Amino acid sequence: MSEINVTPFVDVMLVLLIIFMVAAPMLTVGVPVELPKTAAQALPQDTEEPLSVTLQSDGTVRIMETEVSRDELVNRLRAIAAERADDRVYLRADGVVPYEQVAQVMGALNAGGFSSIGLVTDVGGPSLDDQN
């Protein structure tokens, strides 16, 4: 018999697929935030772990999972920016947070040395066309 048996190969691939499907959601930052829904596409991923700043519904600010006061936010961001090669940061803001607070955090990110700010949203929400 000179044929290749692909059944074990398919079995292994399905097991790996299940492992990656279970492990992928665990790789995100674990701060609970109710993100607003938009129709925007996701940004491409890079090799360096992206810096994530979270603005929670109660107004607290977190860099990755560490809570930071607003007074020391710019200094912390400058120290982080000095160590990173990429100036990209992802801002995750709860949907109930007023726009003024989001704009203040975005200003602090810019003052801290991050010029490329991506706003994180959930995909699948209403678009502007749906509201008209």
TrEMBL record:
GO biological process, one term: protein transport
Membrane topology according to the record: Single-pass membrane protein; Single-pass type II membrane protein
Subcellular location: Cell membrane
InterPro entries, alphabetized: ExbD, Tol-Pal_TolR
Keywords, in A-Z order: Cell cycle, Cell division, Cell inner membrane, Cell membrane, Membrane, Protein transport, Transmembrane, Transmembrane helix, Transport
GO cellular component: a single term: plasma membrane
Domain of life: Bacteria
Membrane-crossing segments per the record: 12-33
GO molecular function: transmembrane transporter activity
Pfam families xref list: ExbD (PF02472)
Keyword Cell cycle: yes
Presence of the UniProt keyword Translocase in the record: no
Signal peptide from the UniProt entry: none
PANTHER family to which the protein is assigned, alphabetical: EXBD MEMBRANE COMPONENT OF PMF-DRIVEN MACROMOLECULE IMPORT SYSTEM, TOL-PAL SYSTEM PROTEIN TOLR
Recorded family membership: Belongs to the ExbD/TolR family.
UniProt cross-references to NCBIfam families, sorted A to Z: tolR
Name recorded for this polypeptide: Biopolymer transport protein TolR
